[in-house]
Amino acid sequence: MARTHKEFVQMMIATIASSTTTSAAIDLCGNTIVGIVMPAAFTGTAVTFTGAVDGSTYLPLVDTDGDALSVTVAVDTHIMMQPTDLVGVSDIKIVSNDTEAAERTITLVVRLLR
């Protein structure tokens, strides 16, 4: 029997607390992020990421040119991401480019790496 796309896609939640810029850590559980669904209210206009491979040492994620992996965001949007951008990161934090005025919940669309 063929497997469906939905069997490989899951949702995870990243929460940025009020008056902060960085989410709590998210254990990707062997998945990679393929999309970000932004909430109806979000103060920032871009997000960057910090990642860890050991669950404790978070470093800014940069591309091969040394530029921060940055995504322009807008409220109520589903932003597609390149799966290869975050492969190899076991834990991640989402960083807003502005202090969030209230608690924000961002939905991460993740794909199981199989």
How would you explain this protein's 3D organization?
- The chain is mainly beta.
- It has one domain (15-112): Sandwich (Jelly Rolls).
- The protein contains no helices and 9 strands.
- The chain has strands at residues 9-16, 26-27, 31-37, 46-52, 59-60, 70-72, 78-80, 91-96, 104-112.
- The strands form 2 sheets. Strands 2, 4, 5, 6 and 8 form a 5-stranded antiparallel sheet that branches.
- A hairpin with a 6-residue loop joins strand 4 and strand 5.
- The radius of gyration is 14 Å and the shape is globular.
The CATH topology is given as Jelly Rolls
Strand portion, in percent? 35-45%
**So, CATH architecture?**
Sandwich
Name the poorly predicted regions.
none
The top-level CATH class is Mainly Beta
Output mean pLDDT. Answer: 91
What do we call the CATH homologous superfamily?
A: Galactose-binding domain-like
Give the proportion of residues in helices. Answer: under 10%
Form type? globular
Q: What distance lies between the first and last C-alpha atoms, to the nearest angstrom?
A: 17 Å
Helix and strand run = EEEEEEEEE
Class derived from helix and strand content: mainly beta
Q: What is the number of strand segments?
A: 9
The largest pleated sheet is described as: 5 strands, antiparallel
Brief overview, please?
The chain is mainly β and 114 residues long. Helix content is 0%, strand content 41%.
Give me some keywords for this one.
114 residues, mainly beta, Jelly Rolls, 5-stranded antiparallel β-sheet, 0% helix
